[in-house]
Amino acid sequence: MDKRLEMMERAVEALEAAVSRQDRRIAALEGMTAEARAVAGEVTEAVAPVDPAAEALPDQWPISAVRGTPALAGRSLLILAGAFLLRALTEAGTLATGMGVVLGLAYAASWIIAAAMAARKGARGSAGFFAVCAALIADPLIFEASTEFGVLSSTGSAVTLSIMTAAGLFVASRWRLQESAWVFVVGAMVTAATLAVVRPPGEEATAVLVALGLAAVWLAGRHDWEFLRWLTAVGADVGVLRLTAMATVPGGPHGIDAPHGPLVAVLQGVLLIGYVGSSFVRALRGRNPIRVFDYLQTAVALAIGWGGAVQLARANDSGIRGLAVFALLVGFASYAGAFGVVDRRYGRNKSFLFLSSLGLTLVLLGLRGSTGPASAVVLAVLALIAAAAGSHWDRVTLRTHAALFLAAAWISSGVAAEVAGDLSGRAGFDAVPDAVAIIVALLTVITTLVVLLARRLKTSGWVQRLPLTALLVMSGIVVAATLVSVAAMVVPSSTLWMGTVALSALTIVAAVLASRWGIREAGWIVYPLLALTGLRVVLTDLASGRTVVFVIALAAYGSAMILSTRLLRTHRRRQPQE
Question: Cα 81 to the chain's mean position, in Å?
Fold first, then answer.
């Protein structure tokens, strides 16, 4: 207890000493003259730390920027005056045309170097003005050297424009000068597009546009200059699309030479591989997220690059097997990257969705490009494989792709047309379809059984149940169409009413599957089947004008309406809704 009192007494004594020292300091300050206090204040301000936020106040930085702008603008005018002096000497004949062009380009390059030096010193404003001057000198000079002076050929102008723009973009990327990058890119795009129009067909100028687009993709990945690649992608797409139209339209534009086919094919390939490949690598690495640009530009590149290559091959009467093989290889590589790399490292994110969708698209394009009826069978086999893998590992993506593969097989094999003809009661339809249609129909039923038998009873969410729903619809329609075909072979007159009977029976079976075996997806298709059957009754059965058809159709449809709805109601009473 005594020790605590002693400690408290010592603390109080220390506080009293500190207060006395402060009192003496205050008294000394009050005794100072006004002049001495002013001197003390100036010293305090001189040694006070500078607040960075105070230097960047919103009401101060525009004033400093405006103060420096006239000097930079005046310097830019002097630079442009030097360029006009070279032009005047060239037009007067003092300098040869070729020498004047070379000196003008060297003069523009010197200001790119000046922009780099200014950026290195931290003078970003000066660097931006120097970049604008370099672009204003180089781009018009290249255009005039190719058109008015005739010094540069189309290839020479494209190469020169590419070199000057690459130098400017290197400086902009090295010191992160986004405004300078915009100046060089926009100037090069305008120059290249104008050259392509003025000196058609313009394969070289279009190559510059494609190169700008891919360079902007690299810059966007390095510095996140997102909008820059949108602009350049539009230029590259339009340029390649223009050449493709000129090369594939019979006769072409009047008075304009058709573009060289191999060069157009190369540009199509560069556009396709460049954009699709960059998005593929971006998704595979997973470091940068897939964005809207990747989805849209990949689709556009496939439409222009792949679709244009197919049209060009057909216009030249050449095959597309090489394109089909390429698409299949990249498609399966996309599947491997999605499930083997992205899914294991990062999960089912946007990159996984992008790569799996790209794989599906390319495989469909590749198989469609291969000629012959075997492609439909291959699609159906792929659907069975995807369904088996998706059911084994419980992957809704693979089950969805299985349904899409089957839909593509239906279209290419003619099963869709056969089924529609059978169920609509078409007069004079082929009761016995060809072997390919039979194989595809059989694989459809097998695929549905694989997914149905391996379904997860605890699956939650309607999205996970959509693939099985689609497969049930396809298999049910196939079975109904088969019944119509068999009945037509036995009783040819049954074609008018057998479609309604088959659809009604299919509706009842779906209701039984939902009520007795708990297959909820089967219950989802009951009412759509009732609507489809009712539409057939109105459009086909009642329109036939035959009493026998009326009786059979109405009896079958009425029975389906009563039994299916009763079965579903019984199932709802038995089990509470989730």
Answer: 45
